[in-house]
Protein 1
Amino acid sequence: MQRYFVKRHQQNIIFEQDDIFHITKVMRVKKGDAFEVVDQQQALFLVETVSLSPFEVKIVEQRAVATELTTKLTLYYVMAKGDKTDFVIQKATELGVNKIVLLQSSRSVIKIDDGKSENKLARFQKIAKEASEQSKRLIIPTIEINADFKSIGKDQSTLKMIADEEVAGLTKNLYSLLDAITTNQSIALLVGPEGGFSRQEVEYVKINQFIPISLGKRILRSETAAIHFVGVVASYLERQ
Ligand code: SAM
């Protein structure tokens, strides 16, 4: 069943224009058809279409479903070229991140151009919204673009880890760190660009409590590392 993110004020449900187009022209919903909406408080409702023009629905019932991770996950990803970043945003959203911060580092292939960031951000947020709808999430991850690598020093997560290719090998350290995490804490994950991290960058984040971890014995592409890292952490957090 299709799901849309809406604004709700009591019984009044407000859709974005793009969503009304998708509902009426793509999904060809008819009067009486039902689908799900998630409001700004992450509450899920089954609604029924009462009018197509103007587009109106009525709430049928509220539904209780818990699809979000109980630990807040932030992915810091040094932006990759082409559609790799789009792919990482889509997959990390499906896997349950709460926030994605796109960074630039000394070996970035992509230089963040503040003049173009606004358009890029709007596109990234659309990707995250569609991936949240498809994966039945109750939130849309926040997407940020930050050219200042050192801004990561402000992260306040309980557990902060940097995927460091220089420590590629066994992964037991990652699991022992995750084992210590309890519900309602927070985790930050940092993944580097195709060219990897400079040692200065690794030293900087270590001073800011990021722990270097291995994602295994092989050297993964930047986008593979990001998706794998989020996937392993999300799966571990939902192991019971
Ligand atoms: N230039 C580096 C080299 O050739 O050794 C490779 C960088 S890798 C393509 C891109 C990023 O993926 C790295 O900065 C790191 O964050 C992550 N990564 C890839 N493989 C990893 C591994 N086995 N363990 C930890 N991190 C890894």
Protein 2
Amino acid sequence: MTKKVLVTHRLPGERIHDLAHCSDVNVWMGPGLLPAAGLREELAGCHGLVCMLTDRIDRALIDAMPDLEFVSSMSVGVDHVDVSALTERGIPLGNTPGVLVDTTADAAFAMLLAAARRLGEADRFVRQGNWSPENAWSPDFFTGKDVTGATLGIIGLGEIGQAVARRAAGFDMRVLAWNRTPREVPGVESVSLEELLLRSDFVSIHVALTDDTHNLLDAEKIAMMKPGAVLVNTARGGIVDEAALAAALSGGHLYAAGIDVFEREPVSLDNPLLEHSSVVVAPHIGSATVLTRARMADIASENALAALKDQPMPHCVNPEVYG
Ligand code: GLV
């Protein structure tokens, strides 16, 4: 029997074409994202799903799909999927680790530099025609915060956190890190989360969003941050209490922030973080380079191809399903 696979977006890369050779593939062609009701409709009767981080794969959806045999997500994070519900059914879930490490670390460092040196504000200033002889170079014109020689605190010292630490070394930064299970990494001082927040001029988040890390940086933790610090989040929005962060910026406790991920995406225009000119924002583009997205799509396709051949996925989040 030819198995049916739903792919919720047109994918770059080469390997997606191989999927069509061994299954009956239905690709959602848009426009835009496949809405939840459409996902439920299109997935009915499918054996496999290749999804994006924008698709919500919750227990109700999984329970409604008796034929589902595998899910492959084109993302490293899987907080959009109810992993336990899949595991209980013996359904493997694939993800795409590794290939996006450097690209995401580059994005985090870009946001750190942009927030420190006020690049978002400066860009708007020029485009809006505010740069004039009366409002131009002066000793304190667009002065920001030094990155070179400052202290960086990395929350989550996995592959991306370590790649950020390597970039920081090039800026002569002192690097502190907190990881739930402490890790020895040369050039990185392992500290408690509290010490990291107290000592760091810049804090960059690189943990996955789980029940344990939801609101990890709440009002109390944000209040512990060094006065004048900068927070960078390229991990997941739910890890930071956005209202508390906005309040800390308004009150002058924090200097700036670089935020690529939001609790609710696309972000609503009344999100308090958007009111702050010192917050550099981006629409969840940490892994967004042409090459990295093609590599991620290839891995997502390879995970699906393995499942179609009844083989273990090369990158499986719940390998216990293979017994
Ligand atoms: C991006 O955020 C990913 O999880 O791949």
